[in-house]
Amino acid sequence: MRGRRARRLTVFAAVMLAVAAIGTPTVASAQGGGAGDDEPLQATDVGITEDEIRIAVIADVENPLQPGLFQGAPDAINGFAEYINDNGGLAGRRLVVDFIDSHLSADDTRNAIVQACENDFAIVGSAALFVNNVDDMVSCPDAQGQPIGIPDFPVLTTEPVHQCSPVSRPINPPTLDCATIDQHPQTYRGNIGATDYYLRRFGDLKGVFLYPSDLKAAKDAQVPNFTAQLEAGIELDAEYDISARAQQSAYTPIAQQMKTDGTTYARSGLAYSSTITLRKEAKLQGVDSVKVWDCSLQCYNRQLLEQGGADIEGQFVYMNFVPFFTESNFNDMTKAFVKYVGKNKVDGFSAQAWAAGVYFRDAVNAVVEQNGPNALTREALLQAASNINDFTAGGLMAPTDVGDRVPGACYAVVQVQDGTFKRVYPKKKGAFDCKSELVTLELDLITG
């Protein structure tokens, strides 16, 4: 079922939002300037001692399917901790990171959550596909034995129970409206990404969409946004389910049909490697009709350029953060992100994980400012996090209502030109187009 297009903002004026106007990021102070600053620091909850705060980052890194899949998440959180500690610490304490590899395994993921519950104050910047059970997260006891839950600020959420967990605030809010999770159908807020820009620039488009077939939740997470693009005006040529394990030969019939149909738009919802494979096979099959090869944040990395080579020339990538490969000096936060993660390690996922770290920092600082560094508990952190709405990660990303779990609609577009990412829209450095609203959809994707 397809829904209705939500009302648009101003039709005649494109809203170009530059994060420069937001101001430079604030660095966490040693004490936070709150009440009780003169009191000796105490161990206030699990993962907090007099001199350190421990956080966990859970990510699918080592695995037989795609080694290093979400390496960007621990890279970013480790870099973020170094950044915090070089600038006075957080709530008067050092920030310490525990990386737990979930290995693309449901069992390892659940064990990782249990381990974090026992040792860490919060889970920050995680990217794990198999968070299909959040019982241990939600019922995690605090230092007093109360089942407060462990605060969770993830990058990636594919499972509805994780997207709507009462202790989770995804830095990329889910398309699912969590108030409707138990209804049939559910309500989704589809993000059309850069579709309006593509239609304005290239005219009518008819497209092919590739869904991941290995995990139902991963496919379902793509359905609202792909459906929203159809609602926005892209005509459907075909949809395909394809495994992340698929060899290039599996793309042959897809490319052949694209050639027959004269497809003008193509997008894979799988990892960047799928986009490369699709492009290579399309070139081999002589597909020359496509005007827009599209991808999102998973393609904003050096691997796409290095492994794709000339075959991915012209590739579009849209994102809701500052294109840091070419704009690393845009503001203090982009500078810090690239410096502390490393210019050879930064990618789309690490940018989101870094943003999750900033979200955690802001929530901690809100608690400290209100009641002092010894008021920092999991319960207080959860309350503070839910009240952070117009979040920009200190100017690294476009405004997003993380606290209320509302997806953002702002975007910037880059294109691979001569082997590098080049900003193509909006032209202004640091700017986002925020003129479109989300597409409201009624879809029944949750069984049971």
List the helices and strands and how they pair.
Layout: E1 4-5, E2 16-18, E3 52-59, H1 72-86, E4 94-101, H2 106-119, E5 122-124, H3 135-138, E6 152-153, H4 160-163, E7 186-190, H5 195-202, E8 206-212, H6 216-232, E9 235-242, H7 252-261, E10 265-268, H8 272-284, E11 292-294, H9 302-308, E12 316-319, H10 324-327, H11 332-341, H12 348-371, H13 378-385, E13 390-391, E14 400-401, E15 412-417, E16 420-425, E17 431-433, E18 439-443
Parallel strand pairs: 3-4, 3-5, 5-6, 8-9, 8-10, 10-11
Antiparallel strand pairs: 1-18, 2-17, 7-18, 12-15, 13-14, 15-16
Strand content: 15-25%
Radius of gyration (Å): 22 Å
Strand adjacency order, main sheet: 4-3-5-6
The total count of strands amounts to 18
Structural class label: alpha/beta
What number of structural domains do the residues give?
A: 2
Helix content: 25-40%
Looking at the structure, the CATH topology of the largest domain is: Rossmann fold
Q: What average pLDDT do the residues reach? A: 92
Number of helices: 13
Q: Under the CATH scheme, which architecture of the largest domain would be assigned?
A: 3-Layer(aba) Sandwich
Overall CATH class of the largest domain: Alpha Beta
Question: Main β-sheet, in a few words?
Answer: 4 strands, parallel
The N- to C-terminal Cα distance equals 18 Å
CATH superfamily membership of the largest domain, which one? Response regulator
The residue ranges in which pLDDT falls below 50 over 5 or more consecutive positions are: 1-34
- The gross shape turns out to be globular
